[in-house]
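Task: sequence design from structure.
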């Protein structure tokens, strides 16, 4: 196959017929990915937003090495182990209020599936059989498995293409202003009795284009869900562990979700692990004399000791190193560095929240050219939708961050000029 990147690998989100040859990663260190050809790239996106402590942090590596020699994996059915118990207890303490029952999964999408299943079954267990749908938001993203896709933005989730395969959900605009707030509340009202839960990414809808809403908007969503008597799921997978400036994003709105999904940076970006955390009340609804009232889910690699050891070590680092301070410093620099980009031709909006900086352009074209330009500048940055963004490791140095924003400032006008040329 001409242009085929590799003979046997099927790449994600890629039209394999004409995909450019992917780069070959050999090593990682600090904020950098080192390629087989020895080029070093500063990772502006922290490996899909996971590597919050940078790569190869010795504390995590050591904890994993120790666990690897003791018990890399053991099934979680009928057995528990110290790394999982410790992690669950720590998460319960870190999370506000009664969010204290942790179900481990192996990926973010599965954590969302579990949250959805928990929500439906919460109602079933109380004899309410009608609540089989979810209210989710435009521009939201919750994963690539089918139920998670169904609550993702209809375009992003390719709902038209997969019609018939996906459950149909109620999808509302984020209630940013009066008109969208009316639509949202009306939809909640119209589907009263059908909706099991509202699911939202708190403060930043990441994969849907780094769309941001403020704490008051999030509070409005939580209040409306409460008034309507439905559950609230906060999908924090992309923003958990400091990304928006606080350990968890939803705490900025002082709300009390019934379920929260964690993932990505949970292990500091070294190994897959996710968690669905429920309140004590929600958990209690699964206690019954009826066997079928139990939560019927159990991923093979759930709560892998190796992954739990990594996550415990990652949590240590939030205590021993100044992560939230680093996020605040990154936020200040991103605001400073990216603000001037707002006046560039083709730029529609510049947004910063915590360690997330996004530049929205009118239309993203010549994507491969754009990515190649960043690589040439020594930056690993993956634009999507119409957004060029950075979500660096919190340990990124000021000079590295300047290199990222500097490359954006240099490449964007050239890219925009190409757009003008093309017209
Ligand atoms: N929820 C959110 C908010 C996400 O950003 C993602 C992944 N980008 C997921 C869920 C799915 O996680 P995973 O890719 O680990 O399945």
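Answer:
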């Amino acid at each position: 196959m001409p242009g085929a990147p590799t003979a046997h690998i099927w790449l994600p989100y890629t039209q394999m017929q004409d995909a450019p040859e992917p780069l070959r990663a050999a090593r990682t260190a600090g904020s950098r990915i080192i390629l087989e050809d020895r080029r070093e790239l500063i990772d502006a996106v922290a490996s899909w937003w996971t590597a919050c402590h940078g790569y190869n942090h010795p504390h995590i590596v050591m904890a994993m090495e120790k666990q690897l020699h003791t018990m890399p994996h053991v099934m979680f059915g009928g057995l528990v182990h110290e790394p999982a118990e410790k992690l669950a207890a720590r998460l319960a303490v870190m999370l506000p209020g009664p969010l204290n029952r942790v179900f481990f999964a192996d990926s973010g999408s599965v954590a969302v599936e579990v949250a959805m299943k928990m929500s439906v079954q919460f109602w079933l267990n109380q004899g309410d059989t009608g609540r089989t749908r979810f209210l989710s938001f435009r521009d939201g993203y919750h994963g690539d498995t089918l139920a998670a896709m169904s609550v993702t933005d209809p375009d992003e989730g390719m709902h038209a293409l997969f019609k018939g395969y996906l459950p149909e959900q109620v999808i509302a605009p984020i209630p940013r202003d009066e008109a969208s707030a009316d639509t949202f509340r009306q939809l909640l009202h119209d589907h009263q009795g059908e909706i099991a839960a509202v699911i939202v990414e708190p403060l930043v809808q990441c994969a849907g284009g780094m769309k941001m809403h403020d704490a008051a908007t999030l509070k409005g969503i939580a209040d409306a869900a409460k008034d309507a008597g439905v559950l609230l799921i906060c999908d924090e997978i992309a923003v958990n562990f400091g990304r928006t400036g606080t350990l968890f994003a939803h705490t900025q709105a002082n709300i009390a979700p019934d379920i929260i999904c964690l993932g990505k940076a949970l292990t500091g970006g070294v190994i897959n692990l996710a968690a669905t955390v429920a309140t004590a009340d929600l958990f209690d609804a699964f206690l019954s004399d009826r066997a079928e009232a139990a939560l019927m889910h159990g991923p093979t690699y759930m709560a892998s000791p190796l992954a739990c050891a990594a996550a415990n070590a990652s949590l240590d680092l939030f205590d021993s190193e100044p992560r939230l301070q680093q996020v605040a410093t990154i936020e200040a620099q991103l605001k400073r560095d990216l603000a001037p980009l707002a006046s560039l031709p083709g730029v529609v909006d510049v947004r910063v929240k915590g360690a997330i900086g996004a530049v929205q352009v009118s239309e993203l074209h010549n994507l491969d050219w754009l990515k190649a330009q960043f690589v040439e500048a020594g930056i690993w940055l993956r634009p999507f939708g119409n957004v060029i963004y950075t979500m660096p490791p919190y340990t990124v140095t000021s000079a590295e961050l300047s290199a990222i924003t500097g490359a954006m400032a240099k490449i964007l006008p050239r890219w925009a000029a190409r757009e003008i040329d093309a017209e």
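The longest helix spans residues 398-422.
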